[in-house]
Specification:
Layout lengths: L10 H4 L10 H8 L5 E2 L11 H10 L12 H11 L6 E4 L2 H12 L5 E5 L5 H8 L3 E5 L9 H7 L4 E7 L11 H10 L5 E5 L14 H6 L5 E6 L12 E5 L1 H8 L9 H10 L3 H24 L4 E2 L5 E5 L4 H10 L2 E2 L1 E2 L8 E5 L3 H17 L4
Parallel strand pairs: 1-11, 3-4, 3-5, 5-6, 6-7
Antiparallel strand pairs: 2-8, 7-8, 9-10, 10-13, 12-13
Helix pairs in contact: 3-11, 4-11, 5-6
Bound molecules: pyridoxal-5'-phosphate.
Length: 373
């Protein structure tokens, strides 16, 4: 291929380490000659989509020749009731990832800074760097928790956004109400604080903060994000949303695409909000699955992090990539944490009961065969 005569590529984009999604399941099955792989790698809902969402999708598909509602009108109305906020305080996105991207595009320029944790959602540094901003990943406090005090210290006059995943991915740890309140009191009002609550439906901790109530208390710089990809089982449809003050939401509306969320996704998400029983079943499954993992990790003598999300991080004592490969051979996909610098840790999503048992049996076998590190 002929090289470009002039270097048109931006250095700060060339320097990005791309996000590594897993290969398509069917492709891995074909390569390994296996059928029915178990995917416990992307924190999806093992129950599938809710029945109400499926019925709504079947109805919506008949109107697929029409453009979708540009502002996701009915979904926004339903969400406004759900959270007791005004409709102009809500923005729906093509996954919450799209809203993260709008924040980056809306607020970052080359030379700006973004503060978050060193061990958090990999999309935060990618989006920051794509805008030429510097990502300041603050080391975790003990217990692999966000160190909010150190993050306040890391804020400079160049800082535009702070990202807090609560609960955090990949650790499953969380920021408490007291910690968040102390943090918000110290953050300058001209720094956007994005609280990403992708896993909120799985939280059981009593001291977990009600971030939406701070939006109510008219914090103009606070934005809270949720997604339909996890507990609602709609990851493939790409729907997420943000709640914030009206001015911030209308600013982000200006830079989104006019039809950013497809009509089938809008219909499914609106219906899923009413499927209380499905959410209850999902929560119950995850809560039981987490306890099951803890019990067996303890028996195996493995360190793990108690999680408020639908996954658990566990230290295997072996190279995480080796454990990944070894489990893949028996048809189980998990995540190695090497990309985060946690070389011997893996992250496993809570699956159905039979999937969790099979994972544990296979892990036990795999650790017998793999060299410790
Ligand atoms: C912390 C966190 N935020 C956001 C997302 C993205 O969610 P969505 O599917 O809504 O783009 C994920 C997905 O894994 C996540 O872990």
């Amino acid at each position: 291929m002929q090289a470009m005569t002039r270097d048109i590529f931006k250095d700060y984009i060339q320097a990005i380490r791309p996000y590594e999604p897993g290969k398509p399941i069917k492709e891995v099955e074909r390569e390994l000659g296996l059928r029915h792989l178990i995917k416990l790698a992307s924190n999806e809902n093992p129950l599938g989509p809710s029945g109400k969402a499926l019925r709504a999708m079947r109805r919506a598909i008949r109107e697929a020749h029409l453009y979708p509602e540009s502002t996701a009108h009915y979904l926004v109305e339903r969400l406004a009731v759900e959270h007791d906020v005004k409709t102009n305080q809500i923005l729906v996105g093509n996954g919450s990832n799209e809203i993260l991207e709008l924040l980056a595009r809306g607020f970052l320029s080359p030379g700006d800074e973004v503060v978050s944790s060193e061990t958090s959602f990999l999309v935060y540094p990618i989006l920051s760097q794509a805008c030429g901003a510097k990502y300041v990943g603050v080391p975790m406090a003990s217990g692999y928790r966000y160190d909010l005090e150190a993050m306040v210290q890391a804020i400079t006059e160049k800082t535009r956004i702070v990202f807090i995943a609560n609960p955090n991915n990949p650790t499953g740890t969380y920021v408490t109400t007291a910690e968040l309140e102390a943090f918000l009191a110290k953050v300058p009002q001209n720094v956007i604080v994005c609280i990403d609550e992708a896993y909120i439906n799985f939280v059981e901790a009593e001291d977990f903060p009600d971030a939406l109530s701070y939006v109510e208390k008219s914090r103009p710089n606070l934005i809270v994000m949720r997604t339909f990809s996890k507990a609602y089982g709609l990851a493939g449809l790409r729907v997420g949303y943000a709640v914030a003050n009206e001015q911030l939401i209308s600013y982000l509306h200006k830079i989104r695409q006019p039809f950013n969320v497809n009509s089938i996704a809008q219909a499914a998400a609106t219906a899923a909000l009413d499927d209380r029983f499905f959410i209850w079943r999902t929560k119950h499954l995850v809560s039981r699955g987490r306890r099951f993992f803890y019990k067996h990790f303890k028996q195996l003598g493995l360190e793990y992090l108690p999680s408020q999300a639908n996954f658990v991080l566990v230290k295997t004592g072996c190279d995480g990539n080796d454990v990944f490969q070894s489990l893949l051979k028996v048809g189980i996909i998990i995540r190695s944490m090497k990309a985060y610098g946690l070389d011997t840790w893996i992250r496993v999503t809570v699956g159905r009961r039979s999937q969790n048992s099979l994972f544990l049996r296979s892990l036990r076998e795999c650790l017998k065969r793999t060299d410790p590190k």
